[in-house]
Amino acid sequence: MQISVFIVSNVRLHREGLVAHLRGCPSIEVLGAADSVQETQNVLRTTAIDVALIDALSPSDSDMVGALRKLSARMRILAVGVRETASEVLACAAAGIDGYVPMDAALGDMVTAIENVVRGELTCSPKVAASLYHCIGFATAAAASPLTTRELQVADLMNRGCPTKEIAWRLGVQPCTAKNHVRNILQKLQVHGRGQAVAKLRTLIGERFGVVA
To answer: pLDDT tens digits for 178-213?
Structure first.
């Protein structure tokens, strides 16, 4: 059976390119493409979609996943063009995205990701898998209180040297929200500053934390 796919992207060249490439794949049935959730809604009224391909998350489209979920709970959502870092992969998971396609993926990799997400599987690089594994282990064992998924994302970006404003931009939140996350991390780690927090993170889980560049 073919997997029905719909593409949602506000970049015309991107969505038309994806349509052209995927229509040549025997296992994929491209139902169309749109530049907004509203146009997608019109399609979903009459057609069942297995997978929606969306652009990698950015501050401008952070609400798209929630809107798509309201349209169809059974539809799988795949983000295209994701940087394979622990923070960005965790951001996808926190947003409710079912899987992702890396920035450097080839067409065959995208088809594999589509087939996997329909089966409830996730393909990621060994480095990302190791980073996520150790982040989860850190959340459950290293801190005085477990870090939330969002706090893990912030902690990863802190370890990379990102200032609060950049953390806010990368995660699509307000600077005051990012500042609150940083404060919560400091409290949970029982330290008094960002430098101490990063030092403790590196001591607890070593260079494996944020190893993916």
So the answer is: 999 999 988 888 888 888 887 777 666 544 444 333
CA–CA distance, 56 with 9 (Å, rounded to integer): 10
Q: What is the pLDDT of residues 108-142, one digit of tens each?
A: 999 999 999 998 887 777 777 766 666 655 555 55
> Is 104 buried (19+), middle (13-18) or exposed (0-12) by CB count in 10 A?
exposed
pLDDT of residue 67: 81
Taking the chain, what is the end-to-end CA distance rounded to the nearest angstrom? 38
- CA nearest to 134, candidates 190, 200, 191, 204: 204
DSSP H helices in 30-123: 37-44, 64-71, 86-95, 107-118
User: What is d(CA 77, CA 92) in angstroms, rounded to the nearest whole number?
Assistant: 10
CA distance 200 to 210: 14
Both tokens assigned to 170: 């990368």
CA dist 36 and 11 (Å) reads 10
Q: What CA–CA distances, in Å, run from 37 to 44, 45, 52, 132? A: 10, 13, 11, 30
Q: How far apart are CA 164 and CA 180, in angstroms?
A: 10
